[in-house]
Design brief:
The complex is a heterodimer. By secondary structure, chain A is α/β, with parallel strands linked by helices. Chain A has ten helices and ten strands. The chains are: A alpha/beta, B mainly alpha.
């Protein structure tokens, strides 16, 4: 009988920067073809986990394997199996969107790079913008290009480090759809986020990273069971501001859907969301309300 | 891996060369200062500087060329620094490519862009009356020394670009290199300088490099300066390369 190895396996992972003990023994597995969310507040160590898995950092202790390869002893194999979309859109501002894709395709030593690039531009609704310099793109467009650049050669494992930080709600939904689409094609996705609703929307399993350790790991239902039963009286079908915003925007915005989200693409919004991550009972009622309301 | 190294380096070189061809202002900024200095020295100070029978523009061109290179490599450090900050560096590092080709692409870009700048400055010098009796072989020698000097200071720029904390810091290291030609035989003969300054001027690398280039373009027999010049260039090159690689491996592992 063949046992199916997990796509990612981490055991006892530790990492310190000078005196700061960022990871204090992290363990988790990610099943093949699933979306796994690593949830945590700023500075929890999410990026450190992702960087270790993508061979950019060496762990101080513990082991990590990706697609069956050890990140320390077989980094070249790991790099063949993965694709990283880092916290800040790793795109070349001077080049056009298409040139960015072609660049990455060449570096992955693929044939027929032009055709694949055009395909990805279409798939990510960037076909029209493909010939423009990336410096003219909105934050959402950059992010989509960034994710598109990660898909060459169909790597079996994709890391998305805070893929929607700093994006407007509409762009977030676009990125979410891209991620769901990926997982639908059998790609394993490990995503980190500080947004609880994002984990809820996307992930089959969620792990909470807190003070360098995984403090909870399970399906959404598992995690909900960790708390006392929800108070049913509060579940009224109240739309969230996000639902209202998206409804209004969608009605008015069918024309210039692609080109003109003039949001700024930086992550200045981080701080607004810090409080999200240490919610307890409070956040839960909100979450239940949202689950009812966001049934789009 | 070796085949990847060459192919990947070429792809990445193409990328950073596009940065230069799309924003020609970097070439303009690099060449404007050496050209301004050349105008200033030839048409303002030059009349009062006695360099023997030679035309002054012939005399000062080697030093101006070195200043051009020193200006140029501050952009090399800047481009490398920008890549490191922007996340595209991490993208490259997490891809199955030869890791050192990321650095080599920047180094080759530096060589090519400096070559373009040097040609522009030389053309201006020609307009200002620069003439050389030197043959093809001597000019090849000049080109070789200029490229070796560029390569050497480029690896210094790589160290700066990799270890800088701010954009300004990435470029600032080139100031001393820009200034070195002023305290050398580049603009005035060293024997007019007071003792300690003269001792410094005669024993720092730029003087031997300038003298060698000057001998070559004036079709003079090359003095032993060429060995001093080559020793300086290769010596600094080896040290800078080793330090740059050590810095690089510390950054990426």
């Amino acid at each position: 009988m063949i046992t199916i190895d997990p796509a990612i396996r981490i055991r006892g992972l530790e990492k310190s920067y000078q005196d700061v003990h960022v990871l204090r023994g992290v363990d988790f597995d990610v099943a093949r073809g699933s979306i796994f969310a690593l949830l945590g507040s700023n500075g929890a160590g999410k990026t450190t986990v992702v960087k270790t898995l993508s061979t950019l950092l060496k762990p101080d202790a513990g082991t990590a394997t990706v697609d069956g390869f050890d990140v320390v002893s077989q980094p070249a194999n790991v790099r063949e199996s993965i694709s990283l979309t880092g916290q800040f859109a790793a795109v070349d501002e001077t080049l056009t969107g298409r040139e960015n894709l072609v660049l990455v395709a060449r570096l992955r030593h693929l044939e027929d790079v032009g055709r694949i690039a055009d395909e990805l531009l279409t798939r990510f609704h960037l076909a029209e913008a493909g010939g423009r310099a990336v410096s003219t793109y909105s934050g959402g467009m950059r992010r989509r290009l960034d994710i598109a650049m990660s898909l060459f050669g169909d790597p079996p494992v994709i890391f998305l480090d805070e893929p929607t930080t700093g994006l407007d709600p509409q762009s977030r939904v676009e990125v979410w759809n891209s991620v769901k689409d990926l997982a639908g094609r059998g790609t394993t996705v490990l995503l980190t986020t500080q947004y609880l609703d994002e984990a809820e929307q996307l992930a089959e399993r969620i792990a909470i990273l807190h003070q360098g350790r995984i403090v909870a790991n399970g399906t959404l239902a598992d995690l909900k069971r960790l708390l006392p039963p929800a108070q049913v009286e509060y579940v009224e079908k109240q739309p969230t501001l996000e639902d209202v915003f998206l409804a209004i925007i969608d009605n008015n915005n069918d024309i210039d859907h692609d080109n003109d989200h003039d949001n700024d693409h930086d992550s200045d919004h981080d701080n607004d969301h810090d409080s999200d991550s240490d919610t307890n009972g409070n956040g839960r009622t909100a979450r239940v309300a949202r689950a009812a309301g966001s049934d789009r | 891996m070796t085949t990847h190294f060459l192919g990947d380096t070429v792809v990445l070189l193409g990328r950073s060369m596009r940065h230069i061809t799309r924003s020609l202002d970097t070439i303009v900024t690099v060449t404007i200062m050496p050209i301004a200095l050349m105008l200033l020295f030839v048409y303002v100070f030059g009349g009062a500087i006695d360099t023997g029978s030679e035309r002054y523009v012939n005399y000062l061109l080697p030093g101006i060329l070195l200043i051009t290179i020193a200006m140029g490599i501050s952009y090399t450090a800047f481009r490398l620094f920008t890549d490191m900050k922007s996340g595209i560096f991490e993208r490259f590092q997490s891809m199955p490519i030869a890791r050192s080709s990321v650095l080599w692409a920047h180094v080759l870009t530096s060589l090519v862009s400096n070559l373009i700048s040097l040609v522009i400055v030389m053309l201006v010098a020609l307009l200002m009356g620069f003439r050389s009796p030197a043959g093809v072989l001597a000019w090849l020698g000049v080109a070789g020394i200029l490229m070796l000097f560029t390569l050497t200071v480029t690896w210094l720029a790589v160290i700066a670009g990799l270890s800088a904390k701010t954009t300004d810091g990435a470029g600032a290291f080139s100031y001393p290199i820009i200034f070195l030609p002023f305290i050398s035989s580049a603009f005035v003969p060293t024997d007019t300088m007071p003792g300690p300054v003269r001792a410094f001027a005669e024993h720092q690398p730029v003087t031997s490099i300038v003298n060698t280039i000057r001998d070559l373009i004036t079709q003079q027999p090359v003095s032993t300066d060429i060995w001093t010049a080559l020793a300086w260039c290769f010596g600094v090159l080896v040290v800078a390369y080793a330090l740059a690689m050590a810095t690089y491996h510390r950054k990426i592992a």
